[in-house]
Design brief:
single chain, 407 residues, alpha/beta, Carbamate kinase, 4-stranded antiparallel sheet, 11 helices, globular, binds aspartic acid, binds magnesium ion
C-alpha cells in the first residue's frame, strides 16, 4: 500500500465537471488501496477575483483581512471535492489548513510553514478516508489564518508529503510535464522523463513556470519525490527526484528563455574601490533582486557596469533610485533596455562534460545572434540576447544539443 499526496491546481478544478473528473481519478487510487491525501487550489480565477473585490472596497487592504478572504477560495474547493467523492461512494473528508495541522509564522500573505502536526490526517487515513486539505493556507500559533504566497498550494502538497512521509507527491496541472523547451516555441520539444530537483529549480527560476520554486526547494531539502502531470489525460508525467549518477549522462536537460528581465547599464563609472558596493547596496536596500552583472574594462579611469533586474522593478529604479545612483557614483548616465531575454541551458551533466559553453556560443554565432551578457553556474549557462532573437536561439540550441532526439 502506497501513500500518495495529490495536488490539483486551479485549472484542474475550473468547473464542476472537472471536479467530477478529479474525483473519479482520486477514487481509482483509493479503490486500489492507496492512502490518498489531496491538496486543492481555489477554482481557476477565484483568487484573482477575490483580490479584485478587495481592491474595489478599499485601495489599502490589511494583509490579515486579505488572508481571511483569499483562504475562502480553497475552502470552497475542498468541500466541493469531498461532496463529489461522496457522490461516487468514496469516503472523504475536507480539512482547512489549520485543521490539517499546518502551522505558519505570522507574515500574512507570504507566511512560511513552521510545523505540521499530521495526527488528524493520520487518523482519517487510518479510517480509510480520502483526506482533502485546503492548499495555500495555514494558521499561526495564535489561530490567525495565513496564506503562503501565490501558487502556494504546491508548497502545501510538498510539505504534507514530507510530514506524512508519502511515497510520491503528484502535482496535477494543465500541462503533461516538464518539457525540454517550451513546446509553443519548439514544436519538437520532448517531455522529460526524470529531472533532478536542482535542474527543476533552475528551469523554474528561468521562467519554465510549471511549479512554484519554493516548493521544489522544499522537496529537495526533504527528499520528496514529485511527479508533475496533467489532470486532463492518463499519461505519466515528469518525475522530479534526487539525482543519481546515471542522470549526469545527459548533458543538457532543458533550455529556457526568460523574457521578464531588463538590462541596465550604468555608464562611465569612475573606477575606484567601493563603487560596485555603493551601486548594489542602493538596489539591495530597495529589495531589488539583481541577477546577472558584468563590468567592462576601465578606459581612462572609467568603466560601464551592466546588470539585469526583473522588468517589474524598472519603474522603481527609474523614478526613485536613478538620480541617487548617478549622484553617489559620479557616473555619466543610466541606460535601460527592456528588449532582452535570457536564454539558458540547464543540465547536471555539464559538471562532467566540457565544451558546452563553447558549443552554445558557436551555435548562436553561426546564425548571427549577438550575446550581450554571459553567466554560468555548475549546471547552467545563460546568455542575454535581444528579445526578438530569443525564440530562434532556443530552437537552434535545442537542435544543436540534440534535445529533439530520444536520450
Ligand atoms: N489559489 C492560490 C493562487 O491562485 C494558490 C494556488 O493556486 O496555489 O495563488
Ligand atoms: Mg496555482
Amino acid at each position: 500500500m502506497a501513500r500518495i499526496v495529490q495536488k490539483y491546481g486551479g485549472t484542474s478544478v475550473a468547473n464542476t465537471e472537472r471536479f467530477m473528473e478529479v474525483a473519479r481519478r482520486i477514487k481509482r487510487y483509493h479503490d486500489q488501496g492507496e492512502q490518498v491525501v489531496v491538496v486543492v487550489s481555489a477554482m481557476g480565477g477565484v483568487t484573482d477575483r477575490l483580490i479584485k473585490l478587495a481592491a474595489e472596497v478599499s485601495p489599502q487592504t490589511s494583509e490579515r483581512e486579505m488572508d481571511m478572504l483569499l483562504a475562502t477560495g480553497e475552502q470552497q474547493s475542498v468541500a466541493l471535492l469531498a461532496m463529489a467523492l461522496h457522490g461516487l461512494g468514496c469516503p472523504a473528508i475536507s480539512l482547512t489548513g489549520a485543521q490539517a495541522g499546518i502551522e505558519t509564522d505570522g507574515v500574512h500573505s507570504k507566511a512560511r510553514i513552521r510545523n505540521i502536526s499530521p495526527e488528524r490526517i493520520e487518523k482519517y487515513l487510518g479510517d480509510g478516508q480520502v483526506v482533502i486539505v485546503a492548499g495555500f493556507q495555514g494558521q499561526t500559533e495564535d489561530d490567525m489564518i495565513t496564506t503562503l504566497g501565490r501558487g502556494g498550494s504546491d508548497l502545501t502538497a510538498v510539505a504534507l508529503a514530507a510530514a506524512l512521509e508519502a511515497d510520491l507527491c503528484q502535482i496535477y496541472t494543465d500541462v503533461d510535464g516538464v518539457y525540454t523547451a517550451d513546446p509553443r516555441i519548439v514544436p519538437e520539444a520532448r517531455k522529460i522523463g526524470t529531472i533532478s530537483h536542482d535542474e527543476m529549480l533552475e528551469m523554474a527560476s528561468l521562467g519554465a513556470k510549471v511549479m512554484q520554486s519554493r516548493s521544489v526547494e522544499f522537496a529537495k531539502k526533504f527528499g520528496v519525490q514529485l511527479e508533475v502531470r496533467s489532470s486532463l489525460n492518463q499519461s505519466p508525467g515528469t518525475i522530479i527526484t534526487e539525482e543519481t549518477e546515471a542522470m549526469e549522462e545527459v548533458v543538457i536537460r532543458g533550455i529556457s528563455a526568460d523574457k521578464n528581465e531588463a538590462k541596465l547599464t550604468v555608464h562611465e563609472v569612475p573606477d575606484r574601490p567601493g563603487q560596485a558596493a555603493r551601486l548594489f547596496g542602493i538596489l539591495a536596500r530597495a529589495a531589488i533582486n539583481v541577477d546577472m552583472i558584468i563590468q567592462t574594462a576601465s578606459r581612462s579611469g572609467r568603466a560601464d557596469i551592466s546588470f539585469t533586474v526583473p522588468k517589474t522593478e524598472l519603474n522603481t529604479i527609474r523614478n526613485k533610485l536613478a538620480e541617487r545612483i548617478v549622484e553617489e557614483l559620479g557616473c555619466e548616465r543610466i541606460a535601460y533596455d527592456e528588449d532582452i531575454a535570457k536564454v539558458s541551458l540547464v543540465g547536471i551533466g555539464m559538471r562532467s562534460h566540457s565544451g558546452v559553453a563553447a558549443e552554445m556560443f558557436e551555435a548562436l554565432a553561426r546564425v548571427g545572434i549577438n550575446i550581450q551578457m554571459i553567466s554560468t553556474s555548475e549546471i547552467k549557462i545563460s546568455c542575454v540576447v535581444a528579445e526578438e532573437a530569443a525564440d530562434q536561439a532556443v530552437r537552434i540550441l535545442h537542435r544543436t544539443f540534440g534535445l529533439d532526439q530520444e536520450p
